[in-house]
Amino acid sequence: MSLGDNIEMEVPKESNIKKLEEAVKYMLDDEGTQPLEILQLIDDIQHLGLGYRFRESTKCALNKIECSEKVREKMHDSIHTCSLYFTHLRQHGYEVSADIFENFKDHNGNFKASLSQDVMGMLSLYEASHFAYKGEKILDEARKFTSTKLKEMLGKIDMEIGAQVRHALEIPFQCRMQRLEARWNIEAYNKKDGANQLLLKLAILDFNMVQSMLQRDLQQVSCWWKDVGLANKLGFARDRLMESFFWSVGMVFEPEFSECRKGLTKVAKLITIIDDVYDVYGSLEELEQFTDAVERWDINALQHLPNYMKICFLALYNTVNNMAYDVLKEQGHVILPQLTKVWADLCKLFLKEAKWSYSNHIPKFEEYLSNGWISSSGPLLLVHAYFLMSQNITNEALQSFNTYPSLLRFPSTIFRLSNDLSSSKAEIERGETANAISCYMHENGVSEEVAREYITNLIDENWKMMNKELVSNSLFDKSFLEITVNLARIAQCHYQYGNAHSDPNDVTRNRVLSCLLLESVMN
Q: Which residues form the Terpene synthase N-terminal domain (predicted)?
């Protein structure tokens, strides 16, 4: 079946979706609905991938829940209710203290053993623990407690609930790519006793509608990639358009951000090509010339480049200039200086890493990471995403990008470290010594296993700092904040079973196909 054939699939009528959407809004807004029921409804909405449709209604409902005495009373004796309350208030930017879980500890300061009798409560507490801030010891304890108990429960509990537990223990909801998670949860929710059939029907129609839109986006960006012609001209480079598009979907899947998604796919493709130029093909002298050309952003620099670099630089130059022109035309903002800066910074760091590789230099871990979180390309992707999606570009945001704020650093560090965890063995075999694993091993004289454990813990620490940043940051709007956390999510998804860009395996292909190409979700 070709992509074109698949796009001809029957698309759910928007009118049907709107009717169901209004019915769900009514449930969220209904004064007669119990607050505890609304809290569970919000949880179901989020897990089914419908949160973007109910942002305002969810906010209003949470305002009521935050003040509800019934919820507060229930929280004292229900770990499930307390965990849902904490998770959704924190997820939506409310200041809520982790101390609300102190009530579930015994006189020795440990979580009560009796909590393990409530499987769903334990699962909810486990999920809540992944919204922790750095230094929240009680949530670290909650994660350790629930992880241990949930693993012990496997094989003793209902098969469907067991599947949910295994799924969460593999990767928690906060860290999962949203579209993949929506599909998994729709199929799981369909098997659930007492499932809200109206909500389920909306989730299925929404998923299929979004999937159809993504297929159209992919078809359009495929035409761009064919016209650019880099895949034919640069035989050494990875031709991974599908994986690049999957990455952009992971960052922003909502229908209203189609242009942003297509733009990010173009940027991701150019990053992949240029990364291969620095990693695989170019000599140091050629790489220095290319870096200088990008830094100068001067079309006249073409005459000093070898032929394969000329087409690469011209594709970059034209694509970025066109993006900047579109923003200037539509919004009146001059963003070319910001875009060219992030590309120049990326190429300078690529060059630095190439020199490390040529000289077999192993930098100190701190030096490697201070370089690596930016060379991951995470900041570059996020800066482009901001301009491609935002209708309210501010001067404060423009200025903040010059110094790469924490909002960009935390997800980009997760990006870099997730990449290194997946790729380090292959890189070490090829003699590419500059990665987080080998740098930490060399500097500290430890085994690869110890280094991997340290890197995994460092990823977790960056998640905690990002959780805090998402609540405290007031410079950017909610939509962009969501894209930043989505960068971390797609990075962990992308590298979960190896490097999906360099060597896409069957698991990665199935994820792309289920999310984008093949079967829609059936009733």
A: 14-169
